[in-house]
Automatic annotation (TrEMBL):
This is Sporulation peptidase YabG. Residues 50-69 are annotated as: Disordered. It holds the Pfam family Peptidase_U57. It comes from the Bacteria. InterPro entries: Peptidase_U57. It comes from Cohnella ginsengisoli.
């Protein structure tokens, strides 16, 4: 076994695909490839995977991810068609779109690349930054005044430590404390949940603590694993909900891959606006490439 190898845990029936992030004597630190889960396991419990598509669990996760992206694209296409029809019949003048701008901080560089690809496909203005979860509070403090986003996503990997049964104690979580500090930093910059939308957390994160810190949406109410694209889906829906409307909580959360056991939130106004006139060239706002912090 070496760093970067794809593996599953034999004791868990190979349900989740991981990549080895570190090797500490006979223990491996693992980061989920489809779920935002941080785990560790004895090296002897690991089985190397050469073809992930042969495994049912990882294959299902990839299918769910593809369906989630298709759903986002279909929702945007449907909304755009409706507005274009209104413009063609004279009910609405030609317009340009201004979706909410996203600052996405991710503890996993591969997840960040996947997330940025979705933002680009949907023609959303977004800036992505890769940094360790422990650096996120400092990154938020540095980047918010520079990027001036409407939505900030604070995510990466998390998990409950083995043999911990007290889910109320933050010490039971691997990165929830880091996410909380980042959320608090964001709220010290902008206290209004309608002015700055904060999406925070990863697998098994302490949902209630993240919400109390100031998040609009967070994981994970039932302390379950969440899919890598769940925070992205929430950010997309926030970015394309009109600024006079409240984001449809039941609809947004139920359409994440993890559902209401994995993601929750509070009423928040959307960030989407339209403008006139529709000046050429195109209204597409380039997505800023992902970067490293620190």
């Amino acid at each position: 076994m070496k760093l970067g190898d794809l593996v599953v845990r034999k004791s868990y029936g190979g349900d989740v695909l991981f990549r080895i992030a570190a090797l500490l004597q006979n223990t491996a630190v693992l980061r989920g490839t489809d779920y935002r889960l941080l785990a560790d396991a004895p090296v002897g419990d690991l089985e190397q995977v050469r073809n992930p598509d042969e495994l049912r669990g990882p294959r299902t996760a990839r299918v769910q991810a593809s369906e989630s992206v298709r759903r986002m694209q279909a929702e945007r296409a449907h909304a755009r068609e409706g507005m274009e029809e209104e413009a063609s019949t004279g009910q609405r003048k030609p317009y340009f779109e201004m979706p909410g701008k996203v600052l996405h901080l991710d503890g996993d560089v591969n997840y960040l690349k996947k997330s940025m690809a979705v933002y680009r496909q949907l023609r959303m203005p977004a800036e992505g930054v890769h940094c360790h979860e422990s650096q996120m509070a400092a990154a938020v403090a540095d980047l918010l005044p520079k990027v001036m986003p409407d939505i900030v996503v604070i995510t990466g990997h998390d998990g409950v430590y083995k043999n911990r049964t007290d889910y109320e104690q933050l010490s039971s979580y691997k990165n929830t404390g880091n996410f909380i500090q980042a959320v608090r930093t964001a709220r010290s910059y902008d206290k209004s949940r309608d002015s700055l939308i904060v999406v925070a957390g990863a697998c098994q994160s302490h949902f209630e603590a993240l919400m109390s810190a100031g998040a609009n949406f967070a994981s994970s109410p039932a302390r379950i694993m969440i899919h890598a694209l769940d925070p992205v889906y929430v950010a997309v829906r926030a970015a394309f909900t009109p600024f006079r409307e409240t984001i449809d909580l039941p609809d947004v959360i139920s359409h994440t891959i993890s559902g209401m056991r994995g993601v929750g939130g509070v009423e928040s106004l959307g960030k989407y606006r339209i403008g006139l006139p529709n000046i050429k060239p195109t209204n597409i706002v380039p997505t800023i490439p992902a970067a490293e912090f620190g």
